[in-house]
């Protein structure tokens, strides 16, 4: 549509406001209650213009073809100035004088001096929260914070309280900010135009205005916590990170972030960071030079190989580390040591996704771009708690649901999304396969399937149809504990949607039959023709670690080379051998649990653990500790002296994501750049440099001297990555793999022509439901589910060393009120939990969010010993531990 602004025609889209037209015309207006991301309210009345003969607030006036807009003219300018002056007059001088806010800059532009600000409200500052502070005297009640909290974050923690000129923002719960529902996403800080809501470490108002101190530097990088892949701007001053701000152009986060990425950077400067190598001498870890540490590692590796051959050495690579680091360590293991004994924590996490998605569709990643989620009209969220574990994704899903998409949540617990769901199914842990089959049965029964798609693009329908006969809703209900009506309702919502999406997490994968769970979910998308078409968005596995997708993509796996080419495939080996100039061993290596078993049996003589706290986070910790005790050389490479590092013979101090150069791949297969923002502390070095250094003491040269060179080399090994380079990413921001061509974008949505299976078709799976490995009995009557909480991250090594510890200081055991009553338990009471494998100490938290008969805890405080409880049961296909089902009892 063409709109005339001050006599000039501009082109704007349908539904545009007059403010959009004015901006398109390149005219500036004050618009203090406006943020592009939010609904317009027209409350500050500073963007006054003439429209069709009337004076109107531009932000809430629809642009019209026949409504000419005027912005210029003394009268309009005076009106706008008066509106701003009126707001400013109630504020203290500092609102104009000392803040770096949007308001201060508006005043500057309009020539409004600090003398206009004559307010003396003196309400005092609320600094109860570690990250978000409120100076109510600076509030102009524009409501941007309230709207961003509701519309972008979906938390509804804020409100405007008071009347008339005394209206200010306040936590909806009343009282202090720290006691409110605030999840510290930082959205309010980023939109507040006056600095009333601000964060310590930055001048008030500067987060929103991006008028940062001139003494600071800003570096764009990718978050190093979870797999969402938020693009961040890290602000540093004097070599210290002072703030992290979300990148407004971030392809996944679009200017949003969460309490970890946005605020939990304090670990970087923790006095407990490892700053020099440590070597065990006379039973104690002592500081040594890099030279001595590396010599010891080299001697241990040589001794292991001399005693039992290359397969006596194994490495666990880090999904926290970059692609280039993962690439280098797998190359080291394969070409310098001569073994495929390399694995990463995908084993503990989404290895069933990789296996299941490959079997169903051909590639081990999510099928669609998360950007497309805005098209989804039905979200099926299974065994994932994105509100806490992938908060930026959680917020976007919630936003979709609030805008009308139907939401089906399948989780035994009342997780954050469940409160907004059309249907919340609460299956007994470990029964997803039966639940999915029940839903699939209804899809078939009610004809909610895509016959043409099934005929032309899928195989396996007859076998699945035969199997599904055994899963009518009533039978599925008996197996899962979900009422049959819920199963039918979920099937109808998913089955009738125009563009459904499946989002899932560890509640699907970390089970005895996790791969079957993934395949049973994939069946639903195939039955509906909702994958590889524009009639659906397939499956989004919410990959966990910042670079767990990438660690696997780079070949830090025992059976695949970079790009998932099988080590058993002679052609794949030959291609890698040509690039590496060294032979590649043909026999698949050991998976993580096999490494531990081999160590206990004396077959593994050296284990190099990079960025994983196996003593805390792998299951059945007693068995892990026994493995470490039995293995002659344990090298732990970490930021901190983790439980694993304390068990090690050599500890190597590593740089964190804030200190290094490379790339990560997020959950929707997106390569993004990671850039150093500050120097590592002391003698800590990047994992990249350390792997090179170890190779060098063994007399080997791994080539690729820089991370950029490593990605270039990897691009020559697998066609999936041929089109990728640091240079291109620097230029274009982010690229999804497969990316075979340097001059074409990567494939964000997969399988639009054909599936990547051998026959080009999607494969339905007819795997029956099988019960979980652990079962409750009279002695261990409760089912323990383990998972995540918002403020802490995995072993907690980083988040416990930030102010997140103030937000969440201990490990809790969530228990249903009925079970608590039966056990005579009070809230906050310490309790000992016992399983068939070990025991843990936790603090009782009574909540109906947990189902009766089940208890829930996280594993963010290793001292509690949660993984002493979990068993060595694991997914039968991939060895992913059954973390989600452990039979326990509460000791009196
Ligand atoms: N704050 C925070 N964020 C994180 C992490 C963290 O530690 N803290 N870790 C990161 C990592 S490594 C990962 S892998 C991801 C994990 O992210 P998620 O997969 O979302 O995390 P979990 O909390 O482990 O498990 C998800 C849900 O599965 C449910 N569940 C358990 N069993 C079943 C079942 O049988 N069926 C169904 N339908 N549901 C079940 C649990 O109740 C739980 O709510 O999070 C990443 N993000
Ligand atoms: N009970 C239970 N246990 C679980 C799970 C569960 O749901 N329940 N989930 C499992 C899952 S999904 C996962 S992914 C694992 C995660 O388990 P881990 O990978 O062990 O956990 P993290 O705390 O993410 O990181 C491990 C270590 O890496 C270090 N680190 C961070 N960045 C770097 C780096 O750049 N370089 C190096 N060298 N070190 C670095 C950290 O300080 C930390 O000590 O936990 C698993 N354990
Ligand atoms: Mo994970």
UniProtKB/TrEMBL annotation:
Domain 4Fe-4S ferredoxin-type: 130-161, 174-202
UniProt keyword terms in alphabetical order: 4Fe-4S, Iron, Iron-sulfur, Metal-binding, Oxidoreductase, Repeat
InterPro entries, per database record: 2Fe-2S_ferredoxin-like_sf, 2Fe-2S_ferredoxin-type, 4Fe4S_Fe-S-bd, 4Fe4S_Fe_S_CS, Asp_de-COase-like_dom_sf, Formate_Dh-H_N, Formate_DH_asu, MoPterin_dinucl-bd_dom
4Fe-4S Mo/W bis-MGD-type domain residues: 216-272
Any one Gene Ontology BP term: formate metabolic process
Residues covered by the 2Fe-2S ferredoxin-type domain: 1-75
Protein family membership: In the C-terminal section; belongs to the prokaryotic molybdopterin-containing oxidoreductase family.
E.C. no: 1.17.1.9
Gene: fdhF
Name of this chain's protein: Formate dehydrogenase subunit alpha
Domain of life: Bacteria
GO cellular component, one term: membrane
């Amino acid at each position: 549509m063409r709109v005339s602004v001050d006599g000039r025609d501009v082109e704007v889209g349908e539904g545009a406001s007059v403010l959009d037209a004015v901006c398109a015309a390149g005219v500036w207006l004050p618009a203090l209650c406006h943020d592009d991301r939010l609904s317009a309210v027209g409350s500050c009345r500073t963007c006054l213009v003439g429209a069709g003969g009337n004076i109107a607030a531009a932000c809430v006036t629809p642009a019209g073809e026949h409504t000419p807009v005027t912005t210029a003219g003394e009268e309009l300018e005076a009106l706008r100035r008066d509106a701003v002056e009126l707001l400013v007059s109630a504020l203290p001088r500092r609102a104009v004088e000392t803040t770096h806010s949007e308001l201060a800059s508006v005043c500057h532009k309009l020539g409004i001096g600090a003398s206009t600000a004559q307010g003396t409200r003196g309400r005092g500052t609320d600094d109860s929260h570690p990250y978000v502070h409120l100076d109510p005297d600076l509030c102009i009640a524009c409501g941007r914070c309230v709207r961003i909290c509701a519309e972008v974050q979906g938390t509804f923690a804020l409100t405007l309280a008071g009347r008339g000129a005394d209206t200010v923002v306040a936590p909806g719960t009343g009282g202090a900010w720290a006691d409110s529902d605030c999840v510290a996403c930082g959205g309010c800080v980023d939109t507040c135009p006056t600095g009333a809501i601000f964060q310590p470490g930055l001048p008030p108002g500067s987060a929103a205005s991006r008028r940062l101190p001139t003494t600071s530097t800003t570096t764009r990088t990718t978050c190093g916590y979870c797999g969402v892949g938020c693009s961040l701007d890290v602000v540093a001053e004097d070599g210290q990170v002072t703030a992290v701000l979300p990148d407004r152009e971030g392809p996944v986060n679009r200017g949003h972030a969460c309490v970890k990425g946005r605020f939990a950077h304090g670990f970087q400067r923790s006095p407990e960071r490892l700053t020099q190598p440590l070597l065990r001498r006379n039973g104690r870890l002592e500081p040594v030079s890099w030279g001595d540490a590396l010599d010891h590692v080299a001697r241990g590796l040589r001794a292991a190989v001399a005693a039992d051959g290359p397969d006596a050495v194994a490495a666990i690579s880090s999904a926290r580390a970059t692609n280039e680091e993962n690439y280098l360590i797998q190359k080291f293991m394969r070409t310098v040591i001569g073994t495929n004994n390399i694995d990463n924590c995908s084993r503990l996490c989404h290895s069933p996704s990789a296996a299941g998605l490959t079997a169903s569709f051909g590639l081990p990643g999510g099928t669609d771009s998360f950007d497309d989620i805005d098209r989804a009209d039905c979200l099926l969220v299974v065994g994932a708690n994105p509100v806490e574990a992938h908060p930026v994704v959680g917020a976007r899903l919630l936003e979709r649901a609030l805008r009308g998409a139907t939401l089906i949540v399948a989780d035994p617990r009342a997780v954050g999304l469940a409160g907004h769901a059309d249907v919340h199914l609460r299956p007994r842990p470990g029964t997803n396969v039966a639940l999915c089959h029940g839903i699939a049965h209804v899809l078939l029964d009610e004809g909610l399937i895509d016959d043409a798609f099934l005929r032309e693009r899928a195989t396996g329908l007859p076998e699945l149809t035969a199997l599904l006969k055994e899963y009518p809703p009533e039978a599925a209900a008996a197996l899962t504990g979900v009422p049959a009506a819920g199963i039918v309702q979920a099937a109808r919502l998913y089955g009738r949607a125009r563009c459904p999406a499946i989002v899932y997490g560890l509640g699907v994968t970390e089970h005895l039959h996790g791969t079957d769970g993934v395949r049973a979910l994939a069946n639903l998308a195939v039955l509906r023709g909702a994958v590889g078409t524009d009639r659906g968005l397939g499956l989004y596995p919410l990959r966990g670690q910042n670079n767990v997708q990438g660690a696997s993509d780079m070949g830090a796996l025992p059976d695949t080379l970079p790009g998932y080419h099988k080590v058993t495939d002679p052609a794949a080996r030959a291609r890698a051998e040509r690039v590496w100039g060294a032979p590649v061993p043909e026999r698949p290596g050991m998976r993580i649990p096999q490494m531990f078993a081999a160590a206990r049996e004396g077959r593994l003589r050296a284990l190099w653990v990079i960025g994983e706290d196996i003593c805390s986070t792998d299951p059945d910790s007693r068995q892990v500790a026994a493995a470490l005790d039995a293995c002659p050389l344990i090298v732990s490479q970490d930021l901190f002296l983790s439980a694993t590092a304390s068990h090690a013979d050599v500890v190597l101090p590593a740089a964190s994501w804030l200190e290094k150069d490379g790339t990560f791949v997020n959950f929707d297969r997106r390569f993004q750049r990671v850039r150093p923002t500050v120097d590592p502390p002391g003698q800590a070095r990047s994992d990249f440099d350390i792997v090179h250094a170890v190779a060098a003491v063994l007399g080997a040269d791994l080539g690729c001297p820089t991370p950029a060179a490593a990605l270039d080399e990897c691009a020559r090994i697998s066609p999936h990555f041929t089109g990728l380079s640091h240079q291109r990413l620097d230029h274009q921001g982010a690229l999804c793999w497969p990316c075979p061509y340097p001059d074409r974008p990567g494939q964000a949505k997969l399988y639009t022509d054909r599936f990547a299976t051998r026959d080009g078709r999607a494969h339905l799976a007819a795997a029956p439901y099988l019960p979980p490995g652990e079962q409750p009995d009279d002695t261990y009557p409760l089912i323990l589910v383990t998972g995540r909480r918002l403020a802490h991250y995995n072993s907690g090594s980083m988040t416990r060393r930030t102010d997140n510890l103030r937000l969440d200081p201990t490990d809790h055991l969530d228990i249903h009120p009925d079970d608590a009553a039966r056990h005579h338990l009070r809230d906050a009471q310490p309790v000992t939990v016992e399983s068939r494998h070990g025991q843990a100490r936790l603090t009782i938290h009574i909540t109906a969010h947990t189902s009766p008969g089940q208890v829930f805890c996280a594993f963010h405080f290793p001292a509690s010993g949660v993984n002493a409880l979990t068993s060595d049961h694991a997914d039968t296909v991939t060895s992913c531990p059954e973390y989600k089902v452990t039979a326990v009892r509460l000791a009196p």
